[in-house]
């Protein structure tokens, strides 16, 4: 049993904290994840670098994100959440400003190594850890609210970045984005996470429910959940890296492809909104089985879809699944392993998935060369999605008695 802290003096309220972090998520995801693709063509036009060289920078960022996420989780476990999230936003701002000054590929890669470290300190993973620790009795509600707002990042990013590039050029746009993170998000995190970094907890009869990382590593559930979210991250990253060429292979123009993909953001938010309104009584494990099964189904719709109606159906199913799997991921790990060491446990689990995500675009390209068409690639990704759903189904929650005996 978790005992509520006797006083919250000096701490921001629940709604204020969640709202502030949600704003930070929208801006951080927009800048650090979704915006990269908008800078590829302007940079290619100025420098003449090929796409593999440019895409390699984003791969470096994703890889660094993966290898630094455990350290971030450990720091949050030690009560340094405020410094981590504010420092991450400041680092992201400096990385964007540095990116605006690049003239050689090595400079771009160095900046994205910095931005990758900033990702691990600012995006959903650290925010989930923070909310789980600060509000152990309301963390599921907090994560649902956070992701509901954060889902708008992809919808708002592209028109905003287009306006910035049109008005200031790609270098000026990066400076503006960097200033938003350094002077807007970093102080917001400092303000929202003020006060005692961790709720004080007293010993309770079921305190053994909080597994250490060592204990978690000895349970099959940890490895099955790690496999689940690693496969899911791999499939999602591979798909998004190749989605525009895959549409072109179907004979769709860029405008037609965009008309399909624009449904993704609203579907993602819709899924989270319905869950927030009506899904409180649904167990996360049951929800996870459904949404993980929906992902391979959506890929098969894409593989064989030749009409706008079918492809919009794909975008809606994929978007709803992607929106809800984030909630499942954020809520199930503390439900299985407790709150006390969630930073280390979640960080170790995420590190594997994020490194796999970094390798996905390149790996999918090799598969495309070997198979020869995108339909075969989509079938392979769908098969990996089925494997993810199967691993999740097998990941039974460990019992407190099992943890103590291990």
Helix count, DSSP H or I runs of 4 or more residues = 17
Radius of gyration: 21 Å
Query: What would you say the CATH architecture of the largest domain is?
Result: Up-down Bundle
Count up the domains: 2
Instruction: Please give the number of β-strands.
Output: 0
Shape designation? globular
CATH homology group of the largest domain: MFS general substrate transporter like domains
Residue runs with pLDDT of under 50 for 5 or more positions? 1-7, 202-208, 400-406
Distance between the termini: 21 Å
**CATH fold group of the largest domain:** Growth Hormone, Chain: A
Q: N-to-C SSE series?
A: HHHHHHHHHHHHHHHHH
Strand content: under 5%
Major beta-sheet overview: none
Structural class: mainly alpha
By CATH reckoning, the class of the largest domain would read Mainly Alpha
Helix content: over 70%
How confident overall, as mean pLDDT?
A: 83
How are the SSEs ordered, and which strands pair?
Blueprint: H1 14-34, H2 36-47, H3 51-77, H4 81-99, H5 105-122, H6 124-134, H7 139-150, H8 153-192, H9 213-217, H10 220-249, H11 254-261, H12 264-278, H13 284-304, H14 308-337, H15 342-371, H16 374-394, H17 400-405
Helix pairs in contact: 1-5, 1-7, 1-8, 2-3, 2-8, 3-5, 3-6, 3-15, 4-5, 4-8, 6-7, 6-15, 7-12, 7-14, 10-15, 10-16, 11-14, 12-14, 13-14, 13-16
How would you explain this protein's 3D organization?
It is globular and about 50 Å long. Helix 6 (124-134) packs antiparallel against helix 7 and helix 10 (220-249) packs antiparallel against helix 16 (374-394). The protein is 80% helix and 0% strand. It has 2 domains: 14-192, Growth Hormone, Chain: A, CATH 1.20.1250; 207-405, Up-down Bundle (Growth Hormone, Chain: A). The chain starts with 13 loop residues before the first helix and ends with a helix. It has helices at 14-34, 36-47, 51-77, 81-99, 105-122, 124-134, 139-150, 153-192, 213-217, 220-249, 254-261, 264-278, 284-304, 308-337, 342-371, 374-394, 400-405. By secondary structure, it is mainly α.
């Amino acid at each position: 049993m978790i005992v509520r802290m006797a006083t919250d003096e000096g701490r921001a309220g629940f709604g204020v904290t969640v709202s502030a972090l949600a704003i930070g998520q929208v801006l951080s995801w927009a800048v650090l994840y979704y915006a990269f693709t908008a800078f590829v063509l302007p940079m290619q036009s100025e420098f003449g670098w090929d796409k593999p060289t440019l895409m390699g920078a984003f791969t470096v960022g994703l890889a660094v994100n993966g290898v630094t996420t455990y350290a971030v989780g450990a720091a949050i476990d030690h009560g340094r959440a405020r410094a981590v999230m504010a420092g991450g936003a400041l680092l992201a701002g400096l990385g964007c400003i540095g990116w605006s000054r690049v003239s050689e590929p090595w400079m771009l890669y160095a900046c994205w190594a910095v931005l990758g470290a900033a990702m691990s300190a600012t995006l959903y993973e650290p925010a989930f850890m923070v909310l789980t620790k600060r509000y152990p009795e309301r963390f599921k509600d907090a994560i649902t609210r956070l992701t509901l707002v954060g889902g708008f990042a992809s919808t708002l990013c592209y028109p905003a970045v287009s306006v910035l590039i049109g008005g200031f050029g790609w270098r000026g746009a990066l400076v503006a984005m960097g200033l938003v993170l350094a002077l807007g998000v970093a102080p917001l995190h400092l303000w929202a996470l003020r006060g005692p970094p961790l709720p004080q907890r007293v010993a309770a009869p079921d305190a053994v429910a909080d597994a250490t990382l060592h204990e978690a590593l000895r349970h099959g559930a940890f490895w099955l959940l790690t496999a689940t979210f690693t496969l899911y991250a791999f499939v999602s990253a591979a798909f998004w890296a190749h989605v525009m060429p895959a549409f072109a292979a179907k004979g769709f123009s860029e405008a037609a492809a965009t008309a399909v993909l624009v449904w993704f953001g609203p579907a993602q938010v819709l899924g989270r909104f319905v869950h927030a309104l009506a899904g409180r009584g649904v167990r996360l494990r049951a929800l996870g089985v459904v949404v993980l099964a929906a992902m391979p189904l959506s890929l098969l719709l894409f593989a064989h879809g030749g009409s706008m109606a079918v492809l919009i159906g794909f975008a809606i199913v994929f978007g709803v699944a992607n929106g809800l799997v984030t909630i499942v991921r954020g809520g199930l790990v503390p439900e299985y392993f407790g709150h006390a060491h969630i930073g280390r446990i979640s960080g170790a689990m995420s590190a594997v998935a994020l490194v796999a995500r970094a390798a996905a675009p390149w790996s999918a390209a090799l598969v495309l060369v070997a198979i020869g068409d995108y339909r075969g690639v989509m079938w392979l990704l769908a098969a990996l999605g089925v494997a993810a759903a199967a691993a999740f189904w097998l990941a039974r929650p460990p019992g407190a008695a099992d943890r103590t005996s291990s």
